[in-house]
């Protein structure tokens, strides 16, 4: 039982670290660590998209990046900043 409590505590502490991230200025490492369901490859795609198309004008524009769909966007919508 004690091990279960420790594991749950670790899980919730990791989840709790995800926070607001500016998708127009964050590097790939930050995007991967702060956005739920976004790994290093997708984070690199976000940065590449931003470099090719300019800054994101809306948070929903993030869904135009390959690897970011409706579900990933929905999980992160509250933590996506533009400025």
From TrEMBL:
InterPro entries on file: Competence_ComEA_HhH, Endo/Exo/Phosphatase_dom_1, Hlx-hairpin-Hlx_DNA-bd_motif, RuvA_2-like
Q: Does the keyword Transmembrane apply?
A: no
The UniProt keywords, alphabetically, are: Signal
Give the molecular function GO annotations: DNA binding
Q: Which residues are the signal sequence here?
A: 1-18
Q: Which Pfam families match?
A: HHH_3
The residue ranges of the Helix-hairpin-helix DNA-binding motif class domain are 30-49, 60-79
Keyword hit for Signal: yes
Give GO terms for biological process: DNA repair; protein secretion by the type II secretion system
Highest taxon in the source lineage: Bacteria
| Gene Ontology cellular-component annotations | type II protein secretion system complex
Recorded protein name is Competence protein ComEA
């Amino acid at each position: 039982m004690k091990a279960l409590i420790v594991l749950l505590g670790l899980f919730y502490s990791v989840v709790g670290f995800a926070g607001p991230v500016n998708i127009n200025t964050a590097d790939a490492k930050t995007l991967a660590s702060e956005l739920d369901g976004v790994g290093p490859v997708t984070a690199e795609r976000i940065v590449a998209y931003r470099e090719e198309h300019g800054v994101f004008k809306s948070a929903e524009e993030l869904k135009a990046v390959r690897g970011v769909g409706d579900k990933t966007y929905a999980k992160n919508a509250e933590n996506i900043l533009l400025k």
